[in-house]
Every structure is written in C-alpha cells, then in structure tokens.
Fold:
Amino acid sequence: MAKIELIQVKGSSFFCSGRLSVGVYKQGDTVILVDSGIDSDTAKNIDAAIKAAGCSVAAIINTHHHPDHCGGNNYFQKKYPDLRIFASQFESVFINNPFTHVLCFCNAAAPSTGLRNKYLEASISVVTNVITPYEDQVIEINGEQFRIVTLPGHTFGSIGIITPDNVFYCGDAIFGEDTFNKHGVLFYTEIQSSLASFEKITWLQIDATVFYHGGMLATISATASKHARRMLETKDVIAQIINVEGTGLPIDLVTQKIMNIYRIPQSEMSFALTRTCVTAFITQLELEKKIELIMRDGLLCVIEKK
Structure:
C-alpha cells in the first residue's frame, strides 16, 4: 500500500491521498477524521500520516455506514480510548452492527460466503455520539463548529460535513469524476431523496468539496447536476426494459439486463449491489404510477401500468 500523505484543501482542512479521500481536520495536536477507510491496514496508514504531522485522532465523523467509510473505526477506537465517533441515528445502527448491512443484500437471511467480505461487512465499532434529529444542524467538537448537512439517497441517513474553513466533505452523496465515469449505474438506494440531495448540493455556498471517491474540486454545482441527469437516464432505461416486455419481467431479469447493458462485472457481489439499485428505481417508477408489481408463475414481476 502506498504511503498516505495529507493534502491541504484550505486552512485546517485536509484529506488523505490515495484511493479513499478520508477527511482530516486539524485542531492543534489532534485531528478530526471524516470517515476512516475500509480496514485496519488503511487506518494504520492514515494514522502514520497523522502521527508524522505531530497529531493524534480525537474524533471521527462518519458520513454513512458503508464499510469503506467506517471500516477503520475499529482500529482507531482501539488505538485511542477517548475517541468519539459521530454518525446519524440511522447510520449508527449499521456501524454498531455491521452484519446487518450484509443482511440487506440477502432478504435478511443468512448471507452466502460471497457476501461476507470487507466491502460489505466492516469491523465492529461503537458510535459514541449520535447526531439526532436527522436534520441540518451545527455540532461542536472541541470548541469548533461543524455544519451537518443531511443528504439522503446513497443511504437513508447519509450526511455531509462542512468544516469551519467552509470545506465540504460530501461522503458518497456525489462522486468524483473518475468514479462517476467508471460506474454506469451509481449506487443510490432512494431515488427521489437522491435527486433532492443533488439539488441541495447545487445551492451550497462552499469554498471547496472533497469527494471520498475522487479528491478535491473547487466548484460542485455542475457535478451535482450531472448526477441528477445520470439518475434520470438510468430510470428511463429501466422503464424501457420493463415496457418492452409487455407480459411482465422478473426483477432479477431486469437486473440481468442492466448488468449486461452497463457491462457490470459478473460477480455475486456486483449482482447484489446492482439488484439493490434496480429495486430503488422500480420503487420510484411504482410511486410515479408508471409500473406495477405482479406475481406470475411464482415470480415477482414488473409490468408497465396501463
């Protein structure tokens, strides 16, 4: 693993170099992390970069519960006994009980071995400070104020953080250009909330944005608008797939067609993630009264609503 370095955005706001842009906010000889990496190895490298800067870790703010964002919590919580971990109430349930995240992809049944990995199941950690209610607010950490921005869509309790330097750490509410271009179907679990979050991000008055997947960008409105367009395009593609099959199409076959159209890797985990996204779009189309769910020969199918 390449050595991690701290890259300054503005003032006391930094992020870690490498594949995951973990946020770092300096407060004297301590730092506050925004997310923590995917596992203990990543966390150790982050910790080494922080120690090289003469600092230790005082707190973590998790934008959401996905393992690549909270998988390093366990390492830091063991290393720094007084560490505080902040997360919204919904996300805290999964961070405290990471096995529940795996259950989301197998109808709450015992998961197959192909789903038991660090990408879907983080090490256990404990959220010490639950951010509630789920609304935009200001929290104080070690005498400084951080703005919490609710951004549901990628997950139901996702948040973004704006530091005292007016730097925005967006988590996975939106993605950097490379990730956006790499994935034809972006991972969002609730479509209407995602679109509202993109619109909200467009109007934020901030000086810079750090994408967890994609580093730093000065202006963000155009990126948020691109996400909205992509989401509407994907919804239209799924609607067309359903409309062509006039007698109804099983949800797994809709997923199959999407995986083939967007050339998604043929793996059990990719199927589980794609099926989750497809389900979110089907739910949205149902809410818009464009499709309906029917049973046919023991299969749950989707059909265009006449």
In short: The longest helix spans residues 221-244. The mean pLDDT is 96.
